[in-house]
Amino acid sequence: MAEAHAEAVHAHQAPTGFIRKYIFSVDHKVIGKQYYFLALFSVFIGIILSVLMRLHLVWQNIHIPLLGTLSPAGAPGGAMTPEYYLSLMTLHGTIMIFFVLTTAPQAGFGNYALPIQIGAEDMAFPRLNMLSFWVTFLGLMVLLSTFFVGDGPPISGWTSYAPLSAVGSAAGPGEGVGQTLWVISIALFCVGSLLGALNFIATTLDLRARGMSLARMPLTVWAWLITAVLALLSFAVLFGACVLLVLDREGGTSFFIPANLIVSDRIIKEHSGGSPLLWQHLFWFFGHPEVYIAIIPGMGITSHVLSTFSRKPIFGYRAMVAAMMSIGFLGFMVWGHHMFVSGMSPYSAFAFSIMTMAIGVPSAIKTFNWLGTLWGGRLRLTTAMLFAIGFVSLFVTGGLSGLFLAQPPVDVPLHAGYFVVAHFHMVMGVAAIFGMFAGTFFWFPKMFGRMMNETLGKIHFWITFVGVYCIFMPMHFIGVEGNVRRYSQFTEVIFLKHLIPVHTFMSIAAFVTAGAQLIFFINLFWSLFKGPKASENPWEATSLEWSIPSPPPFDNFAGKHPVVYHGPYEFGVPDAPQDYVMQTSPEVVKAG
Amino acid sequence: MKTGWSAGFLTGGNWPAMRTSPPRGANMGFAIALVLVLITAISVYIFAGHVWWFPVDISTHGAAIDHQFNLTLLLTGVVFVLAQLGLGFFVWKYRDRQDGRKVVYSHGNNKLEATWTTAASILFIGLNLMGYLIWANMHFTGPAPGALRVEVWGQQFAYNFHYPGPDGQFGPTHVEKMNDAIGNPLGLDRDHDASAKDDFVAATLAVPVNREIELVLRSKDVGHSFFVRELRVQQDIVPGMEIPIHFTTTDEALKHNDGRYEIVCTQLCGLGHYKMRAFLQVMTEADFAKWQQQQEAEAQSQ
Fold first, then answer.
1. Which of A258, A276, A299, A591 is packed most tightly, with the most Cβ within 10 A?
2. Model's pTM, two decimal places?
């Protein structure tokens, strides 16, 4: 029996000093919260940037005095310049993709819940874990510093295509020190993510409790494990690409810069022989798996929450795991679909295209299985559940538009337009964020020992759900009409002018939706201090984190070693005394 | 202070405590279904009604692209409607009504999994294969002999169009001679390069209708792109590379807009990206010959 080991001496004792407890903590729960709040801070900045962008797109003459004080060069007198729009866009994309979508679902929730869900007392390498967080934190600080040094943040977008990003300040404002800091920030982020990925993989493989076979792991754990493998393989490549780009910029090399360029009337004599496409290949070799790094944890959370609040086992557990694995595997063979019109060999488009369409298959399996989970259930429509349902809707919408862009000939008129912006915001942006909201409402009681307010949560859900459809659905329509992306205004090109009213509609929808996020922030911070106390298992859920107090003790299981008897989704078991059977519950369950 | 289920719901208290008064989940389930129906209906209406749509197609290959788009729209449209309405229906139908109903205790169904996996594979891969011929025709066969060749040069934030003149040979471009201010943006050396003598550089891309055009895309500085909506042509311009594309316009091109269509940059190229554009001017063969002579004469007189 496991209880025999209950007296085993615990590996590390709870620290008592403030700094070791809350700042340089090695406790996965504290680190998970640190990542979560880092992402929360980042998403706050990212939303403000997007509001400023949507303002500039439709009202170029608007004056925001505070912005003029903050960025005298980018917004003289408070009026944003066209190039400042590009700076905001670059930072919006970078912050959201790296410091929000990669950080909260994986590093935040993963750090917090993964060790508990597999019955471990901490991550495999607690000090490495602490290092991962602080390197990531440093990366964010370096990125934000671009607002205050030189001539502002870079203007080359989150993709930072060379040679625009490689030839230095001649290419435009922000392309001096701002761009160098951007590359350093991303390289730091890569290091943090690599270390984190190692830790996740080792922890999942080595530290599972007795009885926690792979096939009994919650789908959240599978999602974090698969995401960690993706992160390990893809961030390594991006790190290399960042090193090469820094060398091109500061070390006189020419990995990405070809000969005979003439930028701002100056012939670039010191570089020759580089390939701009090399950067694109390296970047997208990371960039496409990154999409799945952002969304797969959301898939795991959605599966977990849908099953819990449907009071039903997940439909097709093994198919769900297989689907996530194939999405991850195929995800490494599709990067070229970002490059159909880039000038790479048109023959390779065939391979990239068919692999991309193939990813539609496991994505469809997941959707079918989510619907299958709801079918015949008894749905408790909590806020977490609403966000999980919203995730499914947004994932369907955002996923289907991918089938257009995956076909090279259909991509031709849609490429680099708002159809693409709509596609990736729907699926890796908003759907992933809905996964984060679902995770927040679901785990908040465990993380902080208090409940969030359901009424505020539902108001926030409804405005956000309708709001994001109002923002991003019209982008498909104007994308079909040819609305190009990354334009700071639509006043110069004739065929764009009549689309400006649609942009005005989307901007207003964006302001309302952004405003509604304040409801979430208020709910979160109010509940932190004033929320009603949470019981051990307020949702009547089955996984291991709900078998320990809220919040859990320092070493999670109070020195005991939990033993796992069941799969993670034993809800509605016939003949069971209640409608759920905990994974740690020794009672016998008839196989379903 | 409310008590029982309702209070538990508002405060997010424990579920067992919430089961004493009538469920509020009914309204929430209906609301989800209603909103999903509305989102689906509005989206389908706007796409099917072509409220916003592609502009007129003026190329010989464009119709095939439009057809493939429509086919994809049909397939994804059906999946979209079924999935969204199915989701809405399930949420409404299976909401917790506190009636003690037992859930369907099922871990899945392998036959169903196999069915939808096979169906999705056939649909998605089949759709993809149908589009391959279009791509092959655009890229795998070069232009026919006799196609008009023009070099398209991108730079921050303008296009230049380099015509080879009667000899059909592009004069070499010299980076050290490139100078926008003196009217030699591409660095042609008419005094020393024989093939450059009859070349001319225009700010508008003029092409004769119904004739195959081969463009060679080149950049002076950073990445740019060449996008003409009506041509259904989009191709990045990459510094250090010479990227060929070819197309043929149809009579349709002369029927709209006096044959004038905007060329825009779609690859982020710096602060003036949003205003980097030029015009494609489609002309009759006779008008084009006249225009070409004029341009040649102007170039010689410089």
1. A299
2. 0.95
